[in-house]
User: What shape does this take?
Amino acid sequence: MLLILFFRNQKEDYHEQIFKRVVMNSEIPVILEKYQYNLEEILFDESRWTLLEQAAPALCADRIDYTLRDMYTYGQVSYNEVEEFLKQLVVVEGKICVRTVEQAEWFVTTYYKEVIGFFMDPLNMYGYDRLAKMLSYASIKALFM
Assistant: This one.
């Protein structure tokens, strides 16, 4: 049933929708309780995690993470380039900033390579659409078997 809900989610916010349920069904609550941390305050108060997600063009930990990880995995950037970029990051007034214009430009170029070259590639978009439709169809068929 979750697959059906996932593929009908036009906002593409499925992981946000199930985050709390996944956390609550994991060992995380037990671990936090053991060390006397308040689960709601630590994990579910989004105002505490300003570095995690920000709207573009602001930098955020999530965008930096998937861009560097994916582009390194695809062989588009080297480990040394990733390491050098990470050394240039600094937090100023609750925002992630880059120390040099050159490194900021490097990240923008790298990010756009991923977005335009991979996410928006027509063949990838077609493949994602077909896969989503097939999985949705299979999940519906499985319900009636």
About this structure: The longest helix spans residues 122-143. The longest strand covers residues 89-92. The mean pLDDT is 85. The chain is about 65% helix and 5% strand.
